[in-house]
Amino acid sequence: MKIGWVGLGNMGNVMAANILKAGYELQVFNRSRGKEDELVSAGAVSAAGLEELARDCDIVFTMLADDNAVKSVYEDGLLSGIGQGKLLIDMSTVAPATSVYLAGLCQSHAVSFLDAPVSGSVQPATEGTLIIMVGGESEDYQQALPLFEVLGKLSLHLGGHGAGSSAKVAINYLLAVQTQALAETVLFAQRNGIDKERMLQIVNEGACGNKMSQLKTPSIIKGEFPAAFALKYIVKDLKLAKQAGLDAPLANPVLDTFSAAMQSGLGNEDLMAVVKYLDNKK
Ligand code: NAP
After folding, report:
1. Which of 19, 13, 11 is CA-nearest to residue 151?
2. In the chain, what are the domains?
3. Would you write out the chain's pLDDT as a tens digit for each of its 282 residues?
4. Whose CA is nearest to atom 9 of ligand 1?
5. Which residues are paired to 118 by β-bridges?
6. Cα 185 to middle of ligand 1, angstroms
7. Single pTM value for the model
8. Which residues approach ligand 1 with their CB closer than 6 A?
9. Positions marked active-site
10. How far apart are CA 239 and CA 122, in angstroms?
């Protein structure tokens, strides 16, 4: 079975590397050339374009920035001239409505589709311990399962097309709330004379600590936020959650905070850089 991978950003690159390590034949494509070099050195084939990749591969994954990127890749390349019976799997975080739209587009080309966005950042993606939330037909999920087992520690088939994306926008709402709450807590303690390293130790050792707080602790201590999950993407995801019907008391304040942090120039830093924005805002 030949696997295709489109989108070799922070997540796509390491996820594709795991597919290759698991022994699958892999073709890769990224809009900007050069990002495929390491994978090609490790044995992947660099596809000349989207059409060629879709023609050659049985299952094609996309891991792209946002709804527009995914739509343009499907509409302007991936589906042009694709053979019947293939399976396309979109792992990007997009609106549930976009996943339903893509499924319809695939159906009109006699191609199967799964929305399979992931929870977990670059480290779990590298370790193959993502959580994969899947929407689509059961038989397509069963076909993809061996690959999901390579990419993640858990995959869940949640329902029809769009169900994976619905779960994903929900979990990222929690991520946004927790990230802002952690930033506010550390700053509040600091302003009352408590060292941030000590405060983070208290958080992480106690009931309020979690994997996210542990993962972000080193960057808060250093004050450096190279993007594992770019802040601009949590703004995108909170907007997707609102479009999908999120109407909760914390939704607007959290979106306002991350939007303002993005406007202050932090969009390409990690979402935890919100602590810098809140600190400067005082
Ligand atoms: P990233 O590093 O910014 O990579 C984005 C990818 O999308 C790149 O390959 C980029 O190509 C491509 N792209 C953007 N616009 C495009 C367009 N119009 N046409 C074709 N390709 C386009 O993003 P990432 O962190 O890997 O995230 C990818 C997706 O996973 C996003 O939907 C994100 O919300 C989601 N996600 C991310 C994380 C995380 O921790 N990073 C965790 C869970 C889910 P170029 O290289 O040419 O720009």
Report:
1. 19
2. 2-160 (3.40.50.720), 167-281 (1.10.1040.10)
3. 999 999 999 999 999 999 999 999 999 999 999 999 999 999 999 999 999 999 999 999 999 999 999 999 999 899 997 889 999 999 999 999 999 999 999 999 999 999 999 999 899 999 999 999 999 999 999 999 999 999 999 999 999 999 999 999 999 999 999 999 999 999 999 999 999 999 999 999 999 999 999 999 999 999 999 999 999 999 999 999 999 999 999 999 999 999 999 999 999 999 999 999 999 986
4. 7
5. 132
6. 30
7. 0.95
8. 7-12, 30-32, 35, 63-66, 68-69, 72-73, 92-93, 118, 121-122, 228-229, 233
9. 168
10. 22
